[in-house]
Amino acid sequence: MERLLKKNRPQASDAPEVIDPVAPTLTPTLTPEPTPAPTPRTKARPATLAQAPTEEAKESMSVRVRTSIRARSRAAYRATNVLEADESYSDMIEKAIEAEVRRRELAHNDGKPFAANTASLPAGRPLGA
User: Fold this and answer.
1) What ranges does the record give for the region Disordered, renumbered to this chain (predicted)?
2) What confidence score (pLDDT) does residue 11 get?
3) pTM for this one?
4) What is the count of structural domains for the chain?
């Protein structure tokens, strides 16, 4: 157990020299080649969806959805994230929200974005609905 402590481990300078029996010189130590950074999977979003600038800040949001919808969305993400070039599950959800917002803008606002409103949304279910 004592050997596991850092102070008791042999240092690099304490390591024995490895001698090649054929040539009476030290065997050169090979340094590993630096591994190239992985290339990101990218796929352009469909032209019908407006793309947000990549510099735009992201915010966390909490929503409640039915268990069956959550399970289906997670299964769809796992089955298609490579094909659709989703960076993450959040990226897929953002695309889904963006598609629905765009659909509503086209259907109800002549394709223009609705005016931004920073007021809080009402909590809970609407009364009388």
Assistant:
1) 1-64, 108-129
2) 67
3) 0.54
4) 1
